[in-house]
Design goal:
The chain is an alpha+beta fold. The protein folds into 3 domains: about 80 residues, Thrombin, subunit H; about 100 residues, Thrombin, subunit H (Beta Barrel); about 110 residues, PDZ domain (Pdz3 Domain). Helix content is about 20%, strand content about 35%. The strands form 5 sheets. A 6-stranded antiparallel β-barrel has the order 1-2-3-6-5-4. Strands 7-8-9-12-11-10 form a 6-stranded antiparallel beta barrel. Strands 14, 15, 18, 19, 20 and 21 form a 6-stranded antiparallel sheet that branches.
Length: about 375
């Protein structure tokens, strides 16, 4: 009897608990008539009275994008690598480029198409074309490719000679394959820098405009939508944008475009000399008329310098254990641009092509003189 009573009490308690919990849940889930939640017949929102008016800065951004984006292309290169067992491993890379004329020539980076077996171009209007490599300049990391397209939109090439730090710039390209992407920033610096392949860029344009993998070969633009540089590489621990992007000055590209398109290579100029950079200490020891410049140790037989009458040294001496020749002409300027060392000399050559005539200012002993030199074509590094 006692056990029956205990069972009955337990059943009653469980029943009471079940009734209470289920009844409470229904009350909470049902919406009482006096709830704060209502369902009006019409929802009223606060909306702008008119389309947004863009400020002057935004209008420039939009104008640059609309003007340039039809000229920017996505470049896909396909090549074949080999694994440990010499099996073929197809690889695909992406970069950017921009149309420079109505004949379908496109300027991009050399490293975008290097060793490619197949190159394909995707235009902004989604049309795809096979492309042919027309010419490459490994030293300046430049390449020209060509497509056979209709109604192409060539871009406007600007001037990179008078760029200033702080100038507003825009980058348009295909970062991570996202074509038609624009970023904005300023010119952070103009400096000599070595690219990933070791090539020296004398006047690289440094920018904080976001540049990422896939932007290589795309245009860096001024606020008028003119190309002032070719986006080339970034410096960052992750290989992605960290505010240190670099572009090749467009004037460097313009100087070689004709050769790349007509010859497929660059007729790199040469003075035809072997030389030694001179600083104040060496100048004092040698009794030279200027405390800086490039001393001609030897003129290459038949080269541009010899043809123009420039002189190499004739007095054998040693610089440490390296034999040199003293008494040659000391180059101090080319076309009125001062030459302090061999980097200045290289930069002056980069602004010219083989066959150009330059005015070389030299000291012959204590006598200052100018000599016109028709540049030859570099056959070897001198």
């Amino acid at each position: 009897m006692k056990s029956f009573r205990a069972i009955l009490i337990a059943v009653l308690l469980v029943s009471a608990f079940y009734f209470y919990t289920t009844h409470s849940t229904r009350q909470e889930t049902s919406a009482p008539s006096d709830s704060w939640i209502s369902r009006p017949a019409r929802v009223e929102l606060t909306e702008a009275a008119a389309p947004q008016a863009y400020d002057a800065d935004e209008q420039v951004n939009i104008a640059v994008y609309k003007k340039v984006v039809p000229s920017v292309v996505n470049v896909t290169s396909r090549l074949v690598q080999f694994d440990f067992f010499y099996g073929e491993v197809p690889e695909e890379g992406q970069g950017s480029g921009f149309i420079i004329d109505h004949d379908g020539h496109i300027l991009t980076n050399y490293h975008v198409v290097a060793n490619a077996r197949q190159v394909e171009v995707l235009l902004h209007n989604k049309k795809r074309y096979p492309a042919q490599v027309v010419g490459v300049d490994r030293i300046n990391d430049l390449a020209v490719i060509r497509i056979k397209g209709q109604n192409l939109d060539p871009i406007t090439l600007g001037d990179s000679k008078h760029l200033v730090v702080g100038q507003k710039v825009y980058a348009i390209g295909n970062p991570f394959g996202l074509n038609g992407t624009m970023t904005r920033g300023i010119i952070s610096s103009i400096r000599p820098v070595r690219g990933p392949s070791g090539n020296l860029m004398d006047e690289a344009i440094q920018t904080d405009a976001a540049i990422n993998p896939g932007n290589s070969g795309g245009p860096l633009l001024n606020s008028r939508g003119e190309v002032i540089g070719i986006n080339t590489f970034i410096i960052g621990p992750s290989g992605q944008s960290s505010g240190l992007g670099f572009a090749i000055p467009i004037n460097t590209a313009k100087a070689v475009l004709n050769d790349l398109i007509t010859l497929g290579r660059v007729r790199r100029p040469s003075l035809g000399i072997r030389s030694l950079p001179i600083g104040p200490e060496l100048a004092d020891q040698m009794g030279l008329a200027s405390d800086s410049g490039v001393l001609i140790l030897q003129v290459i037989p038949g080269g541009a310098a010899e043809r123009a009458g420039l002189r190499g040294g004739d007095e054998r001496a040693y610089l440490g254990n390296i034999p040199i020749y003293l008494g040659g002409d000391l180059i101090v300027a080319i076309d009125n641009d001062d030459i302090h060392d061999q980097q200045d000399l290289s930069q002056a050559m980069n602004h010219h092509r083989a066959g150009d005539t330059v005015r070389v200012t030299v000291y012959r002993g204590k006598k200052k003189m100018e000599v016109s030199v028709t540049l030859g074509e570099a056959r070897e590094q001198t």
